[in-house]
Predict the 3D structure of the following.
Amino acid sequence: MDIDAQRRYFPALANKIYLNFGGQGPLPSPAIAAIQQAYEQGQIWGPFSRRALDWVLEEEDLTRTALAQMLHVAACDLTLTQSTTQGCAIVLWGWPWQTGDHLLLSDGEHPGVVATVAQLAQRFGLQWSTCPLSFCDNDVDTILAILDRFCRPRTRMMVLSHILWHTGQVLPLAAIGGLLRRTTNKAPGRWSAIFGRATPGPHRRRFLCCHRPQMAMRPCWIGRAVHSSAVP
C-alpha cells in the first residue's frame, strides 16, 4: 500500500501528523463528499419522508454487510451505534447480572465505560476492578498473565479496548481470545464474544457485534429503528 497516496485523501494530513484518531479523527475527502451528498439528497426527498427513510435502511444494510464481510461475521450479529460508548452501554446494561458478579477492566478504558460500570455496580451489587495493562510494551505473555491473575471465579465480563485510548497501545486480542476460550472450557458459559469498533472521523460509524447463539444478553437500549423480532 502506498501510504503517501492514502494520506493525500486526508486534508488534515497535508501539513501535519495527526495522532488523536481515538478521540476524533479526520475524514478522507471521499467520505466528506459522500456525507455532503447524503445530506443534500435527504433535503430533496425530505429527511423524514418514506423515500428518505427507505434509503437510510438500505444504506445501513449495505454497511452492515460490508462490515460483516470484513470481520468474517454474520451481518445479523451487527448493529450500528452512535458512539463507541453507546455500544458498550448496550451490552453492559443488557447483561443478566446477578449480585456479586465481577467485571474486569483494563486501566486504560475510556471514562464513559468506567462510569457506566460504576453505576452498574451500585445498582446491581456488582464487583469491579481494573488490571494494569497500560505500558506493558505489547508483551503478550505479560498481558495474558495479568488478565489470568486478575480474573475471579465470579468474573462474568472482561471490558477491554483493542487500542487503548490514552496511549495507543494495541492489545493482543487473538491471544486474549485464546485465554478466554481456555477459561470457558473450565467454566462453560462464562464468556460470550462481544466487540465494538469505531471508524475514523468526526462522523465515524460505530458498530457492535454480538454472536446471538451464545448470548444471554437482552438489550434494553432501543433506537429509532426497532426490528419486529424485538417486539414481544
In short: Residues 196-205 have pLDDT under 50 and may be disordered. The two ends are 49 Å apart (CA to CA). Residues 79 and 226 are 11 Å apart (CA to CA). Strands lie at 78-81, 102-106, 127-131, 155-159, 194-198, 206-210.
